[in-house]
Design goal:
By secondary structure, the chain is α+β, with helices and mostly antiparallel strands. Among the domains are: about 60 residues, Wheat Germ Agglutinin (Isolectin 2), domain 1, CATH 3.30.60.60; about 80 residues, Winged helix-like DNA-binding domain superfamily/Winged helix DNA-binding domain (Arc Repressor Mutant, subunit A). About 35% of the residues lie in helices and about 20% in strands. It has 9 helices and 13 strands. The strands form 4 sheets. A 5-stranded antiparallel sheet has the order 5-6-7-8-10, with helices on both faces. It has a 4-stranded mixed sheet with strand order 2-1-3-4, covered by helices on one side. Strand 7 and strand 8 form a beta hairpin.
């Protein structure tokens, strides 16, 4: 389907949506040439004058984004926003995100989700801009650590999606739960995750002594990536081999088992320029978040 919002204005940027919007028809209409979206709170209007009036008094104009800052590194930070506590903000963010996400389906029932805002701070002016986000369910029976992910188009192709994915897995590590993104993935999402998984697996292998035997379960335990995602990624990397199952104890057991070829992984890492530095610095998790985690672990409010 063709986008029904032809152009969207975010701050001083004019961006062309990729997909149809789910903005209320009674407010936006069936088709609009230009939609104005507040760069701070994501409220929207198809009329310029009311929009300009809002930008003068927006409560987030000179304030940090809502929620708790959980990560800060260089000019980037990530804020955790509770959809129930900041319902209108989360709804407006989701509606804006739908312009660039084909599979996003939750726009209004946001109370069961957490949103993680990627914030860029201008080092010269100190101004802050949300440039992407990911969301996840507060309670996922499938241990999904991410529901949807988006870096806004003007800031794509800078490796920021890898940062968001890295934070989602760092959250899994802190929670002690191996997980992954909600499936099925879009083609764009599949490519992004394959890049993240392959680089993460390669970094782990590079950190392990060459003579040490490494199983796929070892990789999963170290990276918090699901075993099925590891197998799929290793096949894409062409570093997975199958060897006779010497521990076969029943007729139902497979004749061959998948084995990781560490030498091929190291060669793959060299050919693809994968270094030892991950996209997320675990030490950059902020004091506010670690203090909150201690309170929750202790059963406090």
């Amino acid at each position: 389907m063709e986008p029904n919002v032809l152009n969207v204005v975010l701050g001083d940027l004019l961006v062309k949506p990729w997909y149809p919007s789910f903005y209320p028809e009674e407010l936006v209409g069936r088709r609009v040439e230009r939609l104005y979206v507040c760069q701070w709170c994501f409220k929207y209007s198809k009329e310029l004058i009311p929009f300009l009036g809002h930008t003068k008094v927006c409560s987030l104009k000179d304030a940090p984004p809502p929620g708790t800052r959980i990560y800060a590194k260089d000019c980037y930070s990530i804020h955790e926003v509770d959809g129930e506590e900041h319902k209108l903000y989360s709804q407006n963010l989701s509606l804006f995100g739908k312009l660039f996400l084909d599979t996003k389906s939750v726009f209004y029932d946001v109370t069961t989700f957490l949103y993680y805002l990627l914030v860029n701070t201008n080092p010269m002016t100190g101004s802050r801009q949300v440039i992407g986000f990911f969301s996840k369910e507060k309670m996922s029976w499938d241990n999904n650590n991410l529901a949807c992910i988006l870096v806004f188009p003007p800031w794509q192709r800078q490796g920021l999606g890898q940062m968001l994915m890295g934070v989602s897995y760092e959250l899994s590590r802190r929670e002690g739960r191996i997980g992954g993104p909600e499936k099925p993935l879009s083609e764009l999402g599949r490519r992004g995750y394959t890049a993240y998984w392959s680089a993460t697996i390669a970094r782990y292998i590079l950190s392990v002594p060459m003579k040490r035997n490494v199983t796929l379960r070892d990789v999963s335990a170290a990276t918090y990536i699901l075993l099925e995602d590891i197998v799929t990624t290793l096949k894409e990397m062409k570093v997975l081999e199958h060897r006779p199952n010497t521990n076969k104890k029943s007729n139902s057991a497979p004749d061959e088992v998948p084995v990781l070829n560490k030498a091929k992984v190291r060669r793959w890492a060299l050919e693809n320029g994968v270094g030892l530095v991950p996209p997320v610095d675990a030490n950059a998790l902020t004091v506010e978040w670690t203090a909150r985690d201690r309170r929750e672990d202790a059963g406090g409010d």
